[in-house]
Amino acid sequence: MPKYLSQDWLDRQREIAQEFAERPGATARLQYVVTGGPGGEIRYHWTVENGKIREDRLGEDPDAEVIMTLTYDDSVKMQRGELDETAAFMQGRLKVKGNMGKLMSLMPLTQSADYKAIKAKITEITEW
Questions:
Q1: Could you tell me the CATH number of the domain that includes residue 48?
Q2: For residues 70 and 67, what is the distance between their CA atoms, to the nearest angstrom?
Q3: How far apart, in whole angstroms, are the C-alpha atoms of residue 29 and residue 102?
Q4: 40-49 sheet: strands from edge to edge
């Protein structure tokens, strides 16, 4: 099982996410900053094209359109489905900088049953 937020985990996430149907227009470059983790701060980024993760890597994306920052504990809760992303944002637990329009264009994707099913598959194969 891949360890949460490792490159192996990101690679498996991308593989599983390919099951997701294309969503034209759901395209963005996203940077995640996860603070307070067991090994310190973790940064990773996704490139999403038409609803598909095309790239996800540890590190920085200097071309990221949206930067999201959250604590390790909240990131685990979000991955496990215990904390809704929108609720986390509204409560100030998920900080967002950058192009809000890009982020909003992904909301239909992240609220879909398909997305939640794929997220559950990823959670099942994750070592916490």
A1: 3.30.1050.10
A2: 10
A3: 9
A4: 52-58, 40-49, 28-37, 66-71, 95-98
- The CA distance from 106 to 25, in Å, is 8
Which tokens is 15 given?
Answer: 């593989």
pTM score: 0.92
Residue 17 counted as domain residue: yes
Report pLDDT for 10: 97
Q: What average pLDDT does the structure give for the chain?
A: 93
C-alpha span between 101 and 2 (Å, rounded): 33
**Is 105 domain-assigned?**
yes
At what angle are helices 113-124 and 72-80 packed, to 10 degrees? 110
Q: Which helix (H) or strand (E) holds 17?
A: helix 7-17
Tell me whether residue 125 is in a domain.
no
Task: Provide the 8-state DSSP code for 55.
Answer: E
100 vs 19, residue with greater confidence: 100
Q: How many domains does the chain have?
A: 1
Q: Record the tokens describing residue 91, joined without a space.
A: 């409560």
In the structure encoding, which two tokens stand for residue 17, read together?
């996410």
Q: Are 3 and 127 in contact (CB under 8 A)?
A: yes
